[in-house]
Amino acid sequence: MSGTADRAAAGAVAIRAEGVSKLYRRLAPGARLATLKSALVDRSLTAGLTREEAIVALDGVSFEVGRGEAFGIVGGNGSGKSTLLKIVAGILRPTAGRVAVDGRVAALIELGAGFHPEISGRENVYINGAILGLPRREIDRRFDSIVEFAGLGAFIEEPVKTYSSGMYVRLGFAVAVHTDPDVLLVDEVLSVGDEAFSHRCLRRIQELLAGGRTILFVSHDLDLIAELCDRALWLDGGRQRLLGAPRRVIDAYRQAVAEAEGEEHRRDKEADAAAAAAGGGGDGDGGEAGEAGEESRRWGSREAEIIALRLRAAGGEERYAFASGEEVTFELEVAPREPLDDFVFGVGIFTPRGIECWGTNSDLAGFRPRRFDAPATVRLVCPALRLAAGEYLLDAAVHARDGAPYDYRRRALAFTVTAHERGAGVYLPEHRWEVAGGVEWEST
Question: Order of strands across the sheet with 96-101?
Answer without folding.
Answer: 54-66, 13-25, 96-101
